[in-house]
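Example noted here:
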Amino acid sequence: MMSSLSLRARSNLLSAMPKRFASSLSASKMQDSNKQIKESIKMTKLDNGILVASLENSSPISRVAAVLNTGSRDENHAEQGSTHALRVFSNLATRNFSSFGITRNLDQIGAQLSISSTRENTTYLLESVRNNISRGVDILSEIVSRPELRHWEIDDTKSRLEFELEVYEQQPELKIVDMIHKASFKNSLSNSIYAPRFNVPNLKSELLSGFRQKNFTSNRLTLIGLGVDHDDLIRFADQFRLSTASSTRQAARFISSELREENLDDLVHVAIAAEGVGQSNKEALASAVASHAFGSVYNRIKYSNGASRLSRSVLQLAKESAGVTSFNVNYSDTGLFGFHLIGSTNDIGNLAKGLYQELSKVATSGFSNEEINRAKNSLKTSLANSLDSSQGFIEAFTKGHDHVNVEEVLKSVDAVQSNDVNAFVKRVASSKHSLAAIGNLSELPRLEELRV
């Protein structure tokens, strides 16, 4: 892997908090800086469909992100793994740069380029000191717009893709995320963000070029600049020459199914989910509050089981160490709301039954006002922390520019009503569920047995 370029997949479930980004502003000026940030967000829609957005954050580092509204959900059956492959092959030769040239030029200006992808987006993030950002964008635009995808270079680099798959296959906490998506959706969102083994030999130049031509289009590109002059960013956008073709995204369809991977591992991972809501749905914030009320990954206390509702009610059923957390992910058209259990083979059955009992209890009695207020505070902290990072800001902006104003976001959380949260939980409890599990599953009941 190149020293100046990093590649990673990002999952909206169980993901770590992104890094905070540098700011030259002192804490005493934070209130004034918030006002400046609100006023400095600028957006321009270009004739070719590219959306240009900039924010002056007074950082000594400039960041330019080319965010393409395409990910693994846009792959058809023959194209599965294309997003993963394009992420891995992003350092290969372009029309005007060799692979070595990309590395050398980035190193010369001290720039960092990272490529990440989710089920819905692919992000190329360039970070550099301000006076070198123009040279960095020359390389960024080449990688995004003009990759050659030479078959001999792809053949030489596939070993890196295979290595990533080997690492992925040894991490059940990553596999369970893909498995619950496959168990929950009939198409589209069921695709993994990692290439399936059976299709790796087919990820060749012709197939990847075809996928790019269809999905890497100018109307799907958002160019986001942090610490970059807006007029300069508009000028940079002219360097991104993408196809103007238009394509429609297949709507996701939720199904209720069960996916189990049996092995001899005594540490069992179980995910149980119901259909959630899309990011623009009026219930999106209510679903997030509900997740924090149950106990999300953000509620954990280091070196303890935590004090969340799920921890208090479910973990006491385990004789050995165990863990439970709620997750909530909102995609553009739908979502997933559910729970992740980790426990020993002998405990996992009782933990799963206890989880359903607690879900039924909350659906019947609801969360108390005290629990709702605590969940709101937890959610506000996680959202504010996320927006205090470059990656978090970029991810929020791709959902809509109304997601990046911290004050407005926090007010929206405060406006969520307890009745809306409890109504959402009641719907989740009564709707269809899916289940995914990895490990020694001899003591784990089937899904229909858990719902009795």
User: Anything to note?
Assistant: The two ends are 50 Å apart (CA to CA). The mean pLDDT is 89. The longest helix spans residues 345-365. The CA atoms of residues 216 and 413 lie 34 Å apart.
